[in-house]
Design a protein that fits this description.
The protein is α+β, with helices and mostly antiparallel strands. The protein folds into 3 domains: 84 residues, no CATH class; 62 residues, no CATH class; 125 residues, no CATH class. 45% of the residues lie in helices and 20% in strands. It contains 9 helices and 10 strands. The strands form 3 sheets. A 4-stranded mixed β-sheet has the order 9-8-7-10, covered by helices on one side. This is Probable transposase IS891/IS1136/IS1341 domain-containing protein.
Length: 302
Amino acid sequence: MKTQLEVACKLYNTLLHAEQEEYEENKRTMSKNELRQLALDLRKKNPEFQVLHSQVAQQVADRFYQARQRFFDGLANKPKKKKPHKFLSLVYPQSGWRLSNTREVGLGKNKKKRRARLYLSKIGFFTLVMHRVLPESQVSQVCVKLYPSGRNHVIFLVEEAEVEEEHSSGEGEPVEAVGVDLGLVRLATLSLDGRILENPRPLERSLDRVRLLQRALSRKRFLSNNWFKTKTRLAKEHEHVGDFRRDLFFKLGFLLSQEYDLLVLEDLNVQGLIQRGVTGKRRMRLYDSSFSELRAVLEWQF
């Protein structure tokens, strides 16, 4: 898969160069269809680009077009040449992929996970751990993402018809509401019974390990094999911190959604708190608490 990612990055940079030449010569930018057609023409003429599926090549053109439009809208910086080790995803929009051999694994109560084989054109087969059952006929896009730690995630985009939520009148029905106070020492405190959730501070606990890997990375020659190995170890450490924090937030949200009907959160100006932080340790703990991510998870649960 790394070969396809490197080729996709090279195709992206080629489209960027072609766009710059078109603007210098004719003072115009290419449309979305022109970029998609140029990507297909480059794929036909250059054998190196033929390791990409045709629709994947078109999706690379769409990615460049969207980056350019965000620049025109004032939402992002001007598109620049991408580095191969930072181009980490491929998108199969309609064809070029196939799911097969879907089965359950485990015994007894542990028989919850589902495995499947995913075939991607020009790449090969992957063995997936399916987190949920999905209707294959409604899948409109498959995104394969390589994380810096080396893990591969496959994201299926499923199109479903919008269903209007049924709202009950609510007259005479009691609503169990709870307020949640957020803090640095105690991450969450419930207003009704005073239950608390201590802040585990995952980043602070792993800070020594992160600093050690950062120092080791700074001593390696840039883009050497040892540099990539150390960078992968550092990425795994950061992903472990993020996964631990996200798992804690989802478990908290599930617990609260099972017991209460309405959740009230205080509106914190986290950015202002960080800017007014007296010490670096206090600012780090504000980042480590990740109140915005916690709020997003709780809003999704409720």
